Automatic annotation (TrEMBL):
Cited PANTHER family: MUCOSA ASSOCIATED LYMPHOID TISSUE LYMPHOMA TRANSLOCATION PROTEIN 1/PARACASPASE, MUCOSA-ASSOCIATED LYMPHOID TISSUE LYMPHOMA TRANSLOCATION PROTEIN 1-LIKE
InterPro entries noted in UniProt: Caspase-like_dom_sf, Caspase-related_regulators, Ig-like_dom, Ig-like_dom_sf, Ig-like_fold, Ig_sub, Ig_sub2, Pept_C14_caspase
BP terms from Gene Ontology: proteolysis
Pfam family, one: Peptidase_C14
Name this polypeptide is given: MALT1 protein
Keyword set includes Disulfide bond: yes
Coiled-coil ranges (or none): none
Length: 244
């Protein structure tokens, strides 16, 4: 029976820059000695990787691919590991990732400000590198958006209530990192959100510092920036919000 083999450590997905070197790991236990064989899939083409017969698969990232490992014993029992995705970013700014990168999330694509008419689709996009691959969580005005847990935030039919300041948190087992905050305006394109928006000379710069060395992962600075930004806009200020 296939239950004669149990995978004790599954490989994990990764999101890395092109040319980055790292290792996928698979571990299993069985009643006899075990043999390993790795496979990869690019688009719909699944193929055996010649010579990849160890528990560890060294990879030099070239293109986004899926990987799985087959484990079999001497009685012809076989199991496959989970499929994992190695996402490869071809265009990454100089200096990213940091020289001593340990796999913590690094934002490589920030969302951009959007102006959308009511009823039209709203899409925001971000991306982060990380090992393991980061998970994503979007926020509007500091409030968690329960259904928005992907790189792309998608709302099929935008409502006025979808207006606000958006940002996304990318996190993995090494930590978390926030995208820039961006404003989303839903409504008639010709009407500014406030009659004060065009008044010159009233500009507020808000900076929320979240990455203190001895007080990691503070949430308050992010919420404070959102709330102050909202208040100052009602007072007629043009607001520039920065995080970290």
């Amino acid at each position: 029976l296939s239950t004669a083999i149990a995978i004790t450590e599954q490989p994990v997905s990764a999101s890395v820059p092109v040319g980055f070197s790292f290792t996928l790991r698979c571990r299993a236990q069985g009643r006899t000695s075990l043999q390993y064989q790795w496979f990869c899939q690019h688009q719909s083409d699944c193929r055996l990787i010649p010579g990849a017969t160890n528990q560890d698969l060294p990879i030099v990232a070239e293109q986004t691919q899926l990987y799985t490992c087959r484990v079999n014993d001497l009685h012809r029992n076989a199991v496959f590991s989970d499929w994992v995705k190695v996402e490869v970013h071809q265009c990454v700014a100089r200096g990213l990732p940091p020289r001593l990168w340990q796999g913590e999330p690094v934002i490589v694509l920030n969302p951009s400000e959007q102006r959308v008419e009511v009823g039209q689709p709203l899409q925001l996009q971000c991306a982060a590198m990380g090992v393991p691959a980061p998970s994503y969580q979007w926020y509007r005005n500091g409030n968690l958006l329960e259904q928005q847990k992907r790189k792309k935030l998608w709302i099929a039919h935008a409502k006025v209530s979808d207006s606000g300041t958006y940002l996304c948190c990318a996190s993995n087992s090494h930590g978390e990192h926030w995208t820039n905050a961006v404003d989303v305006h839903i409504g008639e394109q010709s009407q500014p959100t406030s009659p004060h928006c065009l008044s010159p000379g009233k500009i507020a710069l808000l900076v929320g510092n979240n990455r203190y060395q001895h007080h990691p992962n503070l949430v308050a600075p992010v919420r404070d920036v959102f709330e102050l930004s909202h208040l100052l806009k009602h007072l007629g200020f043009q607001v520039v919000s920065l995080l970290d």
